[in-house]
Specification:
Elements (H helix, E strand, L loop, with lengths): L1 E5 L4 E5 L2 H16 L4 E5 L2 E5 L4 E8 L4 E8 L4
Antiparallel strand pairs: 1-2, 3-4, 5-6
Length: about 80
């Protein structure tokens, strides 16, 4: 696990193993499928994702690189 923090906006980027990401994505998919709150911890920060979350998927292709981003957004309550 490798992380970077941006102190101004409290952005955290973490690089997990594929196995760890798969486990988190399975739990997220289950929460989304059952319209439940999803709780996770990222680099020591507790995050609560409500059932009202909006999900966006983005695909980018450049010369020798492809990327898929999954973005979850919600209003803090």
């Amino acid at each position: 696990m490798k992380s970077k923090r941006n102190s101004r906006r409290h952005d955290i980027e973490v690089r997990y193993s594929k196995k760890a990401v798969a486990k988190k994505l399975r739990r997220l998919a289950d929460a989304l499928d059952h319209d439940r709150t999803y709780h996770l911890q990222i680099s020591g920060v507790q995050v609560r994702v409500p059932p009202s979350v909006s999900v966006e998927m983005e695909y980018e292709r450049r010369k020798n690189r492809e990327e898929i981003e999954i973005e979850l957004t919600w209003t803090k309550q």
